[in-house]
Amino acid sequence: MAVVLPPRFTPERVRNDRRYRTLDKYRFIVGFLALPLLFYAVFVISPFLQAIYYSFTDWAGGTTANFVGGDNYVKMWNDEKFWDSLQSSLLLLVVVPLITLTLGIFFAYMITAGGRHRRGRAVSGVAGSSVYKIVYFFPQVLSIALIAVVWQQVYSSRSGLLNGLLGSVGLESLEQRWLGGDYKLALFSTMAVIAWSFVGFYVVLFSAAMGAIPKDIYEAALLDGAGRAATFFRVTLPLIWDTVRTGWIYMGIQALDAFAVVLIMVPPHALKVTPVYLYERFREGQFGYATAIGVVLLVLSMIFTLIVMRIGRRDQIEY
Amino acid sequence: MATATQTAGPEPVEKQPAGSAPRPTRTKRTFRPRTLVITAVAWLLAALFLAPYLEMIVTALRPADELRDRTYLPDKLHWSNFIDVWKESSLGDNLQVTLLISGGATVLVLLVSLPAAYYTARMRFRGRKWFLLLVLVTQMFQPTALLVGLYREFHQLDMLNSVWTLILTNAAFNLAFAVWILTAYIGSIPAELEEAAMVDGTSRFGAMIRVTLPLALPGVVTAVIFTFITSWNEFVMGLTLSTEPDKQPLTVGINNFIGAYTVQWNYLFAASVVAIVPVIVLFAFIERHVVSGLTAGSVK
């Protein structure tokens, strides 16, 4: 690449000489874009394509991988345990974004517009809003593996923080085996942890989006006599809708994955999600079957994305 | 996007300019119930977000014989947990692996993403839209779904259990985000500045290094620290692509504690504290850039 480089691009040369311009262009393309594209090809695209291919084989980790057609998919179709895990995963996919985004939008609105009305201000944030943002954002920088470990201890039925807290305020009757017992309770506890770890991210994201809305729009709404609720539903929400939709898709995919949290935190007999089911097949050496499950997961997240794009479509509002 | 970056600084958005508030408004500063309720709820939530960390630190300092007790604070703080966990496990190796992975992946991401972002921000080339779309779409793939494909690749290359494997995968996973942030940052710096430098006789490369790069520094720092933090925290690939306990990253090493017959929570959490301190320190550095950095790509 460095062989045929012209010595220096003086302005006249760049402007007048066609060859220099073409060379300049391709030199940039080769040097700047080739590496990242190569990276993508090798570590993202190729594993993805291989996954599709091996999902049609009976590869078990050795050198042979016989093409078996759709056998893995047929097996999946008849696999009760797969359907059970998928049910949990789909519930996470639907419920978690709803909880997380609602809380995120609510807190963000409180932080950016929940303060007292001051003179000459249409909206004002609560005092110390930046502190809250940092505190809420905290779980986002923590490894999901550590989050799962900590919450496992918090939920622990014998020495856990949660049961200890309930006991100390006289609510012993509410103490539970949060994770190890009932399926619904385990699912709910898992949702709470995922929501807990992501809410802060959305508070920060949405308050930035809300901060970008010009103040005079709020002033106009205030002049027209809109209350806080009306301002929120008629002004704020429509104006940050694009951000909400992006966040919705991202959160849904994260919730569909939920791998580390469930694998580490929840005992396998109580609750199993599809990625954990995939991982178990992978550990057993059923690589072909595991990739088939992976492909289904990818297809599901694409369908989810398309649906959200579809029902979330609104007129673009420029401001 | 420009407005988002401006208003989203760390200081409270609504600050009364000094002296602009006349005295009489002061008398209105009575606490109304609603303000009180909102503040109380906000603090309660803050406590909810911080409690698990407190639990982690307290347990890390708890002597082993008090683990089953229900008292919240241990009788005496047992600092030696930190030393014991170091001596009795392979966590020292795990920490070293994690440092190598995070450092390596960060350097690699920076080397690869910066030119790509610069090019994408400055040039209108054929396929630019496709490139950005590719970056976005691949960001959507769950690592779990790519797991077997990656395992197969590194198995064929005979690179399982190698630090390089994890450096490369972490770099690849973080590339999209880095390119995305940096493209937005560099795009917000006027190209005229570079043209001026080129008219003054520097090469395009020199203009990039000496003009654009210093101006894009906050974005670069954000991308770097973000890559470092995500690689530091990565779990799934560390778990699957390396199987020997002393070649696994810290997050996996810590979870190996749980697989043992009884879980020694005090050691587990002492190790966890070690694992989160660097992350929190780094986060403190970029905290003011986080908002603008995160929203650079997504908000407008």
UniProtKB/TrEMBL annotation, chain B:
<keyword id="KW-1003">Cell membrane</keyword>
<feature type="transmembrane region" description="Helical">
    <location>
        <begin position="163"/>
        <end position="186"/>
    </location>
</feature>
<dbReference type="InterPro" id="IPR000515">
    <property type="entry name" value="MetI-like"/>
</dbReference>
<dbReference type="InterPro" id="IPR050901">
    <property type="entry name" value="BP-dep_ABC_trans_perm"/>
</dbReference>
<dbReference type="Pfam" id="PF00528">
    <property type="entry name" value="BPD_transp_1"/>
</dbReference>
<feature type="transmembrane region" description="Helical">
    <location>
        <begin position="36"/>
        <end position="54"/>
    </location>
</feature>
<keyword id="KW-0813">Transport</keyword>
<feature type="domain" description="ABC transmembrane type-1">
    <location>
        <begin position="95"/>
        <end position="286"/>
    </location>
</feature>
<keyword id="KW-0812">Transmembrane</keyword>
<keyword id="KW-0472">Membrane</keyword>
<feature type="transmembrane region" description="Helical">
    <location>
        <begin position="265"/>
        <end position="286"/>
    </location>
</feature>
<comment type="similarity">
    <text>Belongs to the binding-protein-dependent transport system permease family.</text>
</comment>
<feature type="transmembrane region" description="Helical">
    <location>
        <begin position="130"/>
        <end position="151"/>
    </location>
</feature>
<keyword id="KW-1133">Transmembrane helix</keyword>
<feature type="transmembrane region" description="Helical">
    <location>
        <begin position="207"/>
        <end position="229"/>
    </location>
</feature>
<feature type="region of interest" description="Disordered">
    <location>
        <begin position="1"/>
        <end position="27"/>
    </location>
</feature>
<dbReference type="InterPro" id="IPR035906">
    <property type="entry name" value="MetI-like_sf"/>
</dbReference>
<feature type="transmembrane region" description="Helical">
    <location>
        <begin position="97"/>
        <end position="118"/>
    </location>
</feature>
<protein>
    <submittedName>
        <fullName>Carbohydrate ABC transporter permease</fullName>
    </submittedName>
</protein>
